[in-house]
Amino acid sequence: MKQPKEITKAEGKLGVLLPGLGAVATTTIAGVMLARKNQALPIGSLTQLGTIRLGKRTDNRSPLIREFLPLASLDQLEFGGWDLFPDTAYESAQHAEVLEQRHLDQVRDELSQVTPMKAVFYPEYVKRLHGPHVKTGATKADMVEQVRDDIRTFLKTKGCSRAVAVWCGSTEVYFPPGDVHASIDAFEAGLARNDPGISNSQIYAWACLKERVPYANGAPNLTVDFPAAWDLAKKLEVPIAGKDFKTGQTLMKTIIAPGLKARMLGLSGWFSTNILGNRDGEVLDDPDSFKSKEVSKLGVLEYILQPHMYKELYGKLYHKVRIEFYPPRGDAKEGWDNIDLFGWLGYPMQIKVNFLCRDSILAAPIVLDLALLMDLASRAGFSGTQEWLSFYFKSPMTAPNLYPEHDLFIQSMKLKNTMRWMMGEDLITHLGNEYYD
Ligand SMILES: NC(=O)c1ccc[n+]([C@@H]2O[C@H](COP(=O)([O-])OP(=O)(O)OC[C@H]3O[C@@H](n4cnc5c(N)ncnc54)[C@H](O)[C@@H]3O)[C@@H](O)[C@H]2O)c1
């Protein structure tokens, strides 16, 4: 990334395209609609509520981030998306049962106008879903062209000057990148011959990149995290980011683990389990989709604790993650963590965390922030993997051969320093010597 000389102004309407108009997407859309009518606060959104310190602590300069950065305003956002169910965003939000009817009633008309475009849906990548609202096409290359056409039509009919996309679709089955993902040419050939290594989310991503629409991935599947997508994003100068929104239990893990490590406390075990009853939980009940999630959730502690450097403290850590589909709970997930830790002379202790969270309530502000910051990145001339947005992800994308930074506090510092840097402000190191001269 080069420091921008100038950032293009956020003029005109910004299309926010969400493949997957389910619980997270509709909670985001309804929340933005309520916030712009001043009927609710966008709590959890750093871009809307956060401030950023500039200069010295004695300078008293801490503007709101949305006043410091040239972000699109909530009034400029125009929502669209794709889904294999034809429900409008209003109907889908009712089905998801995240927001109460009193909230949905206030934005019913606007929400009802957000209708999904037909989905690209090859069922082998999400085995638990079957929906009627799907595209047909002889090849995956045709599907890419149809999605590109959807994007152009959306921009034109809604009068948007540009768009960003955030994948809010279901978690796809796990598979690692293969030969078809190795280069742009290999991927394009794979699209033309319907290569089974190319999943639905990759088709949307490829279409977005070709239309120069920045693309962030909220689920753990590959989507834009493979060499061909990195290369295309660089070649066409489009920002990409992922993977898997950092909410609930993993958010807690990346808050607690860095603290224990900072104080050199040891860990022998960390057992995490969840009960969850929404459609996401149903999809994750399929072992192949759960595998994608498990890989994403398990990586976190390994990178934060660095057991290869701290063998006595973390070399024998037993880390286990479970997700149980339990319909009565709906979106109101409950997560338990049992943490076995040890201190001075090896004496054992335990921490129990019982987080009664709401998945989509925690994910919605992330979708909003990513949409605004990815659009900003594009206007600042950034392209390829946006590692500074790791703050929002469970499994952050990085340059090849670079380990991801999972510690929420390092991620937050990196995020804010990138904001300062792009605006030509001094970086903050927290050294603070100057106060004692
Ligand atoms: N809520 C959270 O805290 C959280 C955290 C991290 C990641 N995620 C991920 O975000 C995604 C969305 O979660 P959710 O709770 O909204 O799930 P959801 O099941 O309510 O919504 C997903 C939607 O995607 C649609 N879909 C699936 N495949 C599609 C395709 N190929 N094209 C278009 N639409 C498609 C489904 O029909 C569904 O409506 C999931 O992958 C989930 O794992 C959520």
UniProtKB/TrEMBL annotation:
It comes from the Bacteria. Residues 248-360 form the Myo-inositol-1-phosphate synthase GAPDH-like domain. Coiled coil: none annotated. GO terms for molecular function: inositol-3-phosphate synthase activity. Pfam families: Inos-1-P_synth, NAD_binding_5. One of its GO terms (biological process) is phospholipid biosynthetic process. Belongs to the myo-inositol 1-phosphate synthase family. This is Inositol-3-phosphate synthase. It comes from Polyangium fumosum.
